[in-house]
Structure formats: C-alpha cells, structure tokens
Design a protein that fits this description.
The complex is a heterodimer of chains A (286) and B (349). Chain A is an all-alpha fold and 286 residues long. Chain A has two domains: 75 residues, no CATH class; 161 residues, Orthogonal Bundle (MetI-like fold), CATH 1.10.3720. Chain A has 13 helices and no strands. Chain B has 349 residues and is an alpha+beta fold. Chain B is built from eight helices and 20 strands. The chains are: A mainly alpha (286), B alpha+beta (349).
C-alpha cells in the first residue's frame, strides 16, 4: 500500500502560469484599468463623504487630504430618520435573503435533479419575471398592500425584493446543485439516509459556500433597490428610499456621505464571499 | 444470510425498454458479475436491486423478503459506486463510519468496525485525512471499506475499478477477491471488463440489449457460449464464426468434413482461436494467414478460413509467415454450433 500512497497526487499549489511579456503587460494594464473603473469613483465618493463641506468643492482634488474626519459622517447618521432607515434596510435585506434562499434553493434543486415537463419553459419563465416592468405593477401593488396591511412595512418591501432576487437564487442554486454529483445522495440513501437526511448531511454542507453567495446576491439586490421601496413605504423607508427623499434637499457632502454608506455594505459583503463567487463561476481562486 | 432473486424484471424509460424480462438468482455468498457492453442494462439492473430505480414490472426479493417497493435504506444492502461517491466533506474515518452512524451504532462499536474495515483495505494509515488528499485507488478503497463496514448481507458494485489505471486495477482485483471471500457477502458486480468478470465471479451473467444472454461459471461461458454474442464478447481474441452449409449431415470446410449436430442449412461454427492447432502437413481446414503478430506468450495469426475472417492463436515458436496457407486441426468436441438465423447455439449431438 505504500506504493499507492506515494503516488497520491498532491494538491497543486505551485502551479505558475508563464505568459509572454507582451501578454502579461496587456493583462496587467487591463486589470489596472478595471480596478480604476471601480475604485476611482468610490474613492471620490469617499473623499466627498469625509472631506466635509469644503472638501467637496476643493479643486484640484488632493490624493490624500489632511483634513479628513468622521464628523460629516456622524452628522449624517444623526439626521433624523437615517438610523431608522438603515435598520429598515437591514431588516428588508435580511428577510429577502431568507425568503429567496427558502424559495429559490428548492426550485434550483428541482431544476437540477429532476427532469419534468416544461422544465426549459419554467427556466425561461423564471428569468422573464425580471423582464416585467415593476412600474406597471406599482399602483395595483400599493393598493393591494394597503388592503392587506403590508404597506409601509419592511416585510412588505422584502416580499417585492424577494421577487426580484428569486430568479438569481433559483438559477444560481440550480448550477450549484448540478455541481454536486447525484451519486453522493444515492450513496447516502443506500447507507441508511432518508431523502431529507441525505440532503441535510451531504448536499447542504457541500452547497453552503454557493448558498452563501446566493444570499449575498439577494442581500445586495434588496440593499440597492430603490423604486419598489419608495412606492411601498411612507415612514418606514429603507435607506435608499429615504436618502432619495431627503438628499435632494441636502448639502452636497451629505449626499456623498449617504452614497458612501450605501456602497460600503455591498462592497464588504462581496469582498467577504469573493472566494465562493469564483467557485460558483468555476474559476479557481487562490 | 441473503440470496437475491430477480424475478421477471422489466424497466422502461419512455418507449425504450432498458430491461426486457430479466430473471436472475444469486445464491447466498455468491459473487455474480453482470457483464456486458455499455448500454446493455447492467447498471440499470443493479440500480433496481439497490432501489435507486423503480422497475416497471417484476419483483426483487432479497433474503426471502420482497423489497420491490422499498426505499434503498430499507433494503439492507451496501453499494460501491463507479465514481466512488466518497463524501468530500468528511474524513476517511467518517466516510467509512457513515452507514454505522446512520444505524445509530454505539461509538465503540463504530470505532471497532471502522478500524477492521480500514485494516482489511489497507487504509488505516489515513483515517483522519480528507478524500481530496487521496489518490484514486485509495478513494476506491474507502468506498469499499464504507460498504464493508456495515457488514452487509448484500453488496452491489458498479464498475468499481473502471476509473483506476491498469496496474492498480489488477492489484485491486486480487485484493477485492480475497476480501470478499473472507466476508462471505453476496455480491453483484457490474462490469464491462471481461477479465474482471472472469477473474472475480463465481458466475457471470452476460447481458446484451436489456436481456441476459447466458448465466454460468466463467469457464462454461467461455467454452460453451449460448449465443453468437456471448462467444464474440468473451475471450481475446473473440471466438471465430465460420459460416458453413450442412448437407447430408456434415459440413465441409476445404477438405475437412465436420459432422453437423442438427439438420439445417445455415449454420455457423464457433471456434476459439486457441482450439485450433497447426497441422504439420497442411491438412485439415485451410487457413490463409494475412498478418502474424508475435504477442510474446503466443503468436496471433489473422487470416481467412474459406474467405471468412478468423484469428488463431499458436505457440510462439510456430514457423508461420504472412501470405502462407496453413492447415488447421480442430477438436470437433470443442466447437460451438450456432444456428445462423437465431444466433443461438444448438446443443451438441
């Protein structure tokens, strides 16, 4: 047995890609351009958010101004209603995550594991929900929500956000479950698991990273959504909807502070789960 | 402990009939191989026994208990999958212990049985490792150990060696045979590799087109194939089939007259390449040699008998050159006579 154990392939950590220098140059410039595309606007927003009233209008901008402070940010957070709106945003986004996983993952599992009549049509239909303009639904939705008592609640907003996030949740989890061989489950059944036990003990642990990524998608979609949140709430607004209302009348550096606060959670979440996102897209990350 | 009775099982996928009325009995402790080309239904049959597929008709009885409608976990069997299906998020120990844990076996019992199964398959050195750190052969051992740890009455194996390289396959084959003989488990083993089936099995069921063509011991199947397919599928080189006409109770090939076992004009003679010997005086069946391949242990001659392709195996010392016409002697009792229309062997007269 020593013979076979010495033949065991070691995980390949040392693989290096050697590219011709011209291609490497192109690669790095491309990467630099992409980074700048994303980071420079965020940087300017941050400058505006932390620079205060004077920082916003200063020209030329300095790369690292000396008079940065958290004061404008704190002032912004102390504006009446901002904290409440922030909490509403978290509640709505949290509920959206829960609902879209609970509804989307079973749909994805069904799409991945079973073949049924109308499967492709169903897949297309799932995507088509995103093609339906929300604006047309706005008035009937508002009326129904008022009737049912969902109007002006983060819960009501999260329901609409779940509708927006579900197509992603179903399709991403579908590819996720497709990547977990059916034999794992079958082996679990043979060795004494019920279908549910096999799912919980075998599939779920393997799917967890991908489910986390799906959760983040749902979170970001809800966090950034402004239209439905604006029409379905009056007092209990989410942060985006609240900012849309108050920032029109606010000084410029408050707008930057608001924008910065909106950007940060999404960026942090995506950064935290980037490994899983790459895994979902089949790109090895190191 | 447990015999397996497969009673007139039919499986249809839509309009396609994957299994056509298959019946098979595996006695207690017996090793039965299901052998056939891909798409012959052998894996489907195994999955029906396991309960992973539902048969369209027929019954599966294990140890006297009709399990036809039961879920896999209630059938009391273990299975080794073609891709091993070793759980990647569990250590080797937990993988091997999986079935025992599901039976809620006490912890010291689990430990004892896992260690015994691991020792049997020589994986006791890396019980704490994760499968990703193992080679294909080691993963395969884990899959077998997981199946043996539950001490199953019935073990199902689906091409467990097909993903290994040739050398490892040979090594594992020998070990599997020893391990399974010791365990005394009733085993059904699916393979498309005839040497695996011949080497491992007590009996082989040769399958083709959703039917069992023949069931018998490896030697029976090799020496007396029941159909033209079995003869052509088993053996390397495969059996030669020579079309002959039976007239007045005998068939003529060249100068050789062979007695026909039954009357019938369209017959085929099934001849194993090693059952023919070169005649010193070029008498017997004329054989036109086209290619001579020295294989080390023997010479493989490819040529024509009566204009029909044939492969003959001779001792490595035989002096034969390509283009030559030689004479073959055959022992009539070792020939298989096949009805040319049905493809089935006729009983020897």
């Amino acid at each position: 047995m020593t013979a076979t154990s010495s033949k065991a392939p070691l995980p390949d950590t040392s693989r290096t890609y050697t590219l011709p220098s011209a291609r490497r140059f192109l690669l790095w410039t491309g990467m630099a351009a992409l980074l700048a595309w994303v980071l420079v606007p965020i940087y300017f927003v941050a400058l505006g958010a932390f620079g205060g009233r004077t920082g916003v209008f200063r020209w030329p901008k300095s790369i690292w101004p000396s008079d940065l402070s958290f004061a404008p940010m704190m002032q912004f957070l102390n504006i009446e209603g901002v904290f409440n709106a922030l909490m509403n945003s978290f509640i709505a986004a949290g509920l959206t995550v829960v609902f879209s996983i609970l509804l989307g993952a079973p749909a994805g599992y069904a799409l991945a594991r079973y073949s049924f009549r109308g499967q492709n049509a169903y897949r297309l239909l799932v995507l088509l929900t995103r093609a339906f303009p929300l604006a047309i639904l706005a008035l009937p939705l508002t009326v129904s929500f008022i009737r049912i008592g969902l109007y002006d609640t983060p819960f009501g907003v999260s329901l609409i956000h779940t509708v927006l996030a579900l197509p992603f949740a179903a399709l991403v989890t579908q590819s996720l479950f497709m990547g977990i061989p059916r034999e794992y489950e079958e082996a679990a059944w043979v060795f004494g698991c019920t279908r549910l036990q096999a799912f919980v003990r075998i599939v779920l642990p393997l799917a967890l990273p991908g489910l986390a990524a799906t959760a983040i998608f749902a979170f970001v979609i809800s966090w950034n959504e402004v239209f439905a949140a604006s029409i379905l709430t009056v007092r209990e607004r989410t942060l985006t909807a609240y900012l849309l209302k108050i920032l029109a009348e606010s000084p410029l550096h408050y707008r930057f502070a608001g924008g910065f606060i909106l950007i940060i959670p999404s960026v942090l979440f995506i950064f935290a789960v980037r490994r899983y996102l790459f895994a979902v897209w089949g790109i090895a990350s190191k | 402990m447990a015999d397996i009775v497969i009673d007139h099982v039919v499986k249809e996928f839509g309009s396609f009939q994957a299994l056509q009325d298959v019946s098979l009995v595996a006695n207690d402790g017996e090793f039965v191989a299901l052998l056939g080309p891909s798409g012959c239904g052998k894996t489907t049959l195994l999955r029906i026994i396991a309960g992973l597929e539902t048969q369209s008709a027929g019954r599966v009885v294990i140890g006297g208990r009709d399990v036809s409608g039961l879920t896999p976990r209630k059938r009391g069997l273990a299975m080794v999958f073609q891709n091993y299906a070793v759980f990647p998020h569990m250590t080797v120990f937990e993988n091997v212990a999986f079935g025992l844990r599901m039976q809620k076996a006490p912890a010291d019992d689990v430990k004892r049985k896992v260690e015994r199964a691991a020792a049997l398959l020589h994986i006791d050195g890396f019980l704490e490792r994760y499968p990703a750190k193992l080679s294909g052969g080691q993963r395969q051992r884990v899959a077998v150990a997981r199946a043996l740890a539950v001490e199953p009455a019935v073990l199902l194996m689906d091409e467990p060696l097909s993903n290994l390289d040739a050398l490892l396959r040979l090594e594992m084959r020998t070990e599997l045979k020893a391990v399974l003989r010791e365990a005394g488990t009733t085993t059904i083993y699916v393979t498309h590799d005839q040497t695996e089936a011949m080497g491992l099995a007590d009996r082989i069921a040769v399958m083709y087109g959703g039917k069992i063509e023949q069931i018998g011991s490896p030697l029976e199947i090799y020496a007396t194939p029941a159909t033209r397919f079995v003869g052509g599928f088993i053996g390397s080189p495969p059996m030669n089939f020579i079309k002959v006409r039976c007239e007045n109770g005998s068939a003529r090939i060249g100068e050789m007259a062979l007695p026909c076992p039954v009357a019938g004009s369209e017959m085929e003679i099934g001849l194993r390449g090693e059952d023919a010997s070169l005649a010193a005086d070029r008498s017997g069946i004329p054989f036109d040699v086209r290619v001579v391949e020295p294989m080390g242990s023997h010479l493989l001659l490819t040529g024509a008998i009566d204009g029909q392709l044939a492969r003959i195996v001779t001792p490595p010392t035989a002096k034969v050159t390509a283009g030559e016409r030689v004479g073959l002697h055959v022992d009539p009792s070792r020939l298989t006579w096949i009805d040319g229309r049905t493809g089935r062997a006729v009983s020897r007269g």
